[in-house]
Amino acid sequence: METVAIIALKFAVFALVVHLATVLIALRRLRVPEDARSAFSKGPPVSIIRPVRGLDPNEKQALRSTFALTYPAYEVLFCCASPDDEAVPFLSGLIAEFPSVPARLLIGDDCPFDNPKLNNVAKGWDAAAHPWVVMADSNLDMPRDYLQRLFAAWKPGTGLVSAPPIGDAPKDLGAELECAFLNTYQARWQYFADTIGLGFAQGKTLFWRKADLDAAGGLRMLGLEPAEDAAATKVVRGLGLRVRLADGAFPQPLGRKSVAHVWARHVRWARLRRSTFPFLYALEILSGLAAPLLALLLASTVLDFDVLHFAVLYVLAWFSAEAALAAGVGWHLSLRSPLLWVVRELSLPALWVQGWLGNSFTWQGNDMSAARTAGTRSGVIAALTLAGIGGASDA
């Protein structure tokens, strides 16, 4: 039993060391990089595809930011499924307001995929005139050097550049809780994974060389998984290339969010992760504070030390590192943040269990499922085979 207690204690120490390491890596990667505009002052033209459904007040500034980019040559393709969408008049007005930026509003829904977002993007992908394409969500606020920073992340061997959303401008408790999940937890781990060579895509930003995805089978390849970003990660890795993250990431203005909305969103993401990468999802239970604290408690029952004293110091060190990260990169930080980090840590085990217990979720009014049927798996394998995916490609 003493051996088990020693192993538990070593695990708790190891978990804290890893936590501090992820914070240090994130501090380096998440500071806004030096201005990259001069390096790409004559870069290749880019098509920006922004699927839009409805119009949240926070999205107006995010959509307007598309026209303020300093990149020399780009077009904007807004995509709406219905002409009756409330965003259509606003988008038409934006296009008229900025005649110097080539922009179009594409309307229609051919429904070739189960994923409604991918259905909306499809017409933009087909209409894209340029060799480089960005798919960017409508609530992503683009900094003026957005495209330059994406190109700066494109190194040899890259097949896709992405970036996690950074919660910004919360106006209520629910939105602050969303920041607690998105920023010092999820973004921190995502940049750590990217730094050690295990980068994965997140659908807020997907930056492609169009010919790569077309050669791999086209946009339909992203419809072979419940989530297009998971499918994108698998396609890129199947090509022998890497997904990389842009340094600094990009803000998502949150405004007001109900706690129920935040919880439902993270349950949806959990079920999608469990469906597409089940082994990695199984390990997520070790990524928070609960597992090392339980290990400390187990060790204390045998090794006879003051577990309360050690646990308090442990939690202070854990959250002090998160506070240093948020302050160091200029993210939202308030007096309520530590309390919300505690709430997040308490809820992570329940969220992890929820991810295992179901497949269904609702997204933008659509009832969907994260279930992976045998037919879907065989369809993925067949499509990858037909597309010739598997050989390495030089970027």
Detailed description of the structure:
The chain has 395 residues and is an alpha/beta fold. Helices cover 51% and strands 14% of the residues. The chain has helices at 2-30, 57-64, 87-97, 116-127, 146-152, 173-195, 210-215, 228-238, 259-276, 278-283, 290-303, 307-329, 337-357, 374-387; strands spanning 46-51, 74-80, 103-107, 132-136, 158-162, 165-170, 205-209, 242-245, 250-255, 360-363, 366-369. A seven-stranded mixed β-sheet has the order 3-2-1-4-7-5-8, sandwiched between helices. The longest helix has 29 residues, at 2-30. The protein is elongated, with a radius of gyration of 22 Å. The termini are far apart.
- Report low-confidence residues grouped into runs of 5 or more: 373-395
CATH architecture of one domain: Alpha-Beta Complex
Radius of gyration: 22 Å
Alpha-beta classification: alpha/beta
Oligomer state of the chains in this structure: single chain
What percentage of residues falls in helices of 4 or more residues?
A: 40-55%
| CATH superfamily (homologous) name of one domain | Spore Coat Polysaccharide Biosynthesis Protein SpsA, Chain A
| CATH third-level topology of one domain | Spore Coat Polysaccharide Biosynthesis Protein SpsA, Chain A
β-sheet strand percentage? 5-15%
What does the largest sheet look like?
A: 7 strands, mixed
- Summed over residues and divided by their number, the pLDDT gives a mean of 89
